[in-house]
Amino acid sequence: MQEETNIPFVFKAISLISLAILLVPVGVVVLAGLNAGDYLTFPPQGLSLRWIKAFLTSSMFLSAYGVSFVVALVSTLISTTIGTMAAIYLTRSRGPFVSFLRGFFMLPIVLPGVVLGLALYVFYVTSDLGLARTMTGLLIGHVIVTCPFVIATVTAALVGFDRSLEEAARSLGASPFTAFRLVTLKVISSAISAGAIFAFIVSFGQFEVTLFLSAPDLQTLPSAMYVSMRYKFEPTAAAAGIFAIALVVLSMVVTSRLVNLKRIFER
Amino acid sequence: MSDIHLKKLTKSYGGHLAVAGINLHIAEGEFFSLLGPSGCGKSTTLRMIAGFVQPTSGEIIIGADDVTSLPPEKRDIGIVFQNYAIFPHMNVADNIAFGLKLRKRPRDEIRRRVTDALRQVGLSGYEERYQRELSGGEQQRVALARVLVTEPRILLLDEPLSALDKSLREEMKYWIKDLQKKLGITTVYVTHDQDEALTMSDRIGVMQKAQVVQVGTPQEIYEAPKTLFVTTFIGHSNVMDVIVGSGSGSDMTVLIDGNPVPTRGPENLVPGQPVKLVVRPENVVIGPDQETPVRLPATVLSETYQGSLIRYRLSLGGQEIIAERQNQSGNERFNPGTPVTVGWDPGRSEALVA
Ligand SMILES: Nc1ncnc2c1ncn2[C@@H]1O[C@H](COP(=O)(O)OP(=O)(O)OP(=O)(O)O)[C@@H](O)[C@H]1O
Ligand SMILES: [Mg+2]
C-alpha cells in the first residue's frame, strides 16, 4: 500500500468533498428527525426529541422496523449461503452454459425493482402457492434481490483464488470437502462477509420489490416511511430514518469486529 | 519411500496429446528430473503422479500400489508448487502442522515435529510469521518443510526455483539437492532449466512434444545425446551438415569438405546419406600443436573474450562452428582471418540423423 503522504493534495481534497456531498442526505435526515416543529421541514425549526419519542411509541413504525430487521437478517443468511455456492459453481464449472448463467444470476441487479416486484406479485396471486402477502413471499423477493451482491463479491474473490492452495491441502491429506472448508472458505471469508453486509444493507433499504409484496400487517420500514409520508407529513419518518442509519452503521461495526473489515476493502 | 513406474501414461485434452504414452521407472531414492521446453507436458506428467490430473490411459505405480485412480489425498505424495502455495490465513507453524493435524497426531508431537522441520530447513523462530512476511526463498523452505514433515513416499517439485533471483537459485539448487540426499526421498523434479537438471539430478528424462526422448545420467545426456533436439536443448552444440563417408555405428566416417572424419553415429546408415555432425564447442581444439585424430583446416572469423573462456567463430568447410578455449596463460590467441587447424576427439562427436 502507498504511504498516505504520497497521495497528491488534489486527490485528498476531491475525496473529502465527495465524502461531504455523500453525507449531506444523512445529515438532512438526522436533523429533520430531530425537528421541534409539526411538519417535516428543513432546516428544522428548533431541535427536540419529540419525533424520536413518536417513533418509539408508534406501533406501526416499530413493527415495520422489526419486520425489516428480520427480513434483512433471514434473507442475508439465505442469500449468503446460496450466493456463495452459486459463485463457486460459476467460477469452477466449465460447462457451456456458465457464461449465460452468470448473466442470468446478475439479472436482478439490472432489472428495475418495479418489474421484478410486479412479476413476483402476479406470480404469487395467480399461482396457488399461497405466497401472496406472506413473510415467505417477501423473503423470496429479498433473496432474489440480494443474492447477486453476494455472488458478485464472492466471484471476484474466487477468480483471484489460487487453486494450488487447494491442491496443496489435498496432497497433504485433505479430502475435497476438507480442503475447501479449511483453505478456500477461509481465504474467501472476508469476501463472503462483505457480500453479506451488502445483502443486509440492500435488503434493509429495499423498497420497489417490497412495495408489491408487503401487506398492511407485513410492512417493512421503507414502505412504512413511504406510507407515513403520503398521508401525514410528519417528521416521524425522518426519526425512523435515524434508526435505520443507526442499524446499518451498527451492523457494519459489529461485522468489522467479527471479521477484519480492513481486509475486505484492501482487496 | 518408493519407486515409481509410469506405464504408457497418456493425457489428452480434447484430442490434443499433452502426454503421449510415457514409460518411465524412477528408482527408490533417486533424484529424477523431467527436463524440456515449455508446453512439452512436464507439469501434466507431474500432476498425474500427484493425482490432480486423471490420465486418459496408462498406469502409475508407486511402490507396490497402483495409484492411477486414487485421489491425491490417498497417494502419500508431497508436492511443492512453483508459487509455493503457502496458506495465507495461517502462520508458518500452522502451515507446517496442516498435514499432521489431518493425520490426527497428538498435539505435543505436532509441536515437536514442526520445530524439527523448521530447524531442518533453517527457519527456526519463524513459527509466527505469515506468508506475506516471508521472502520467496523462505516461502520455498516453508513449502518444503510442510511437505516433508508428513514423511511422504515421494517428493514432487514443479519448477520450484523459477520464481527466485539468480543468486538465490544457485544457493537453493545445492540446498535442495543436499536435503534430498540426506533424506533419501524419491524425487521428481520438473524444470526447463538445463543447468538445474544437470547439477541436481541422478538421472534426467528429456521431454519433447509430449514424449520422453532420452533418459540418462546428466553425463550421458550431455555427452551422448541421442537426438538433435537433446543436443541443442542441453548446452550449446555445433551442428554441421555432412554426408556419410563409410560405415555406421561406432566405426564410421563422415565427409567434411571431402575429408573423411571418424565419429560415432547411429546404425544402418548408407554412404552419401546426409546427416548432422554434432560437436560441443569446448571439445573443438585449435592450433597446429594439437594431437587429435581429427585435423581439419579452418579460418578464424572472430574472437570473443569471455573472461575464463575465449570463444572463436571459425569457418570449416564453408560452415560456421564455435570453439571455446580456456583462457590460460600460455594459450595462443588467434586473430580473425588466420588460417588454423582444428580438431576433436571422435569419441566426443556424434553423427545424428536429422
Ligand atoms: N487443463 C488443460 N486443458 C487443456 N490443455 C492443457 C491443460 N493443461 C495443459 N494443457 C496443454 O498440455 C500441454 C502440456 O502442458 P504442461 O503444462 O504439461 O507443459 P509444461 O511442460 O509444464 O510447460 P511449462 O514449462 O510451460 O510449464 C500444453 O500444450 C498445454 O497447453
Ligand atoms: Mg509446467
Explain briefly what this protein structure is.
The complex is a heterodimer of chains A (267) and B (354). With 267 residues, chain A is an all-alpha fold.
Any idea what the radius of gyration of chain A is? 22 Å
The CATH architecture of the largest domain in chain B is 3-Layer(aba) Sandwich
Please give the most extensive interface between any two protein chains, plus how many residues each contributes.
A-B, 18 and 24 residues
Beta-strand residue fraction of chain A = under 5%
CA distance, first residue to last residue of chain A: 11 Å
Q: Helicity level of chain A, as a percent range?
A: over 70%
String of helices and strands of chain B: EEEHEEEHHHEHEHEEHHEEEEEEEEEE
List the ions, cofactors and other small molecules found in this model: adenosine-5'-triphosphate, magnesium ion
Rg of chain B, Cα atoms, Å: 25 Å
**What is the helix fraction of residues of chain B, given as a range?**
10-25%
Task: Point out poorly predicted stretches of chain A.
Answer: none
Identify the overall geometry of chain B. elongated
* CATH homologous superfamily title of chain A: MetI-like
Determine the CATH topology of the largest domain in chain B.
Rossmann fold
As for the number of domains of chain A, it is 1
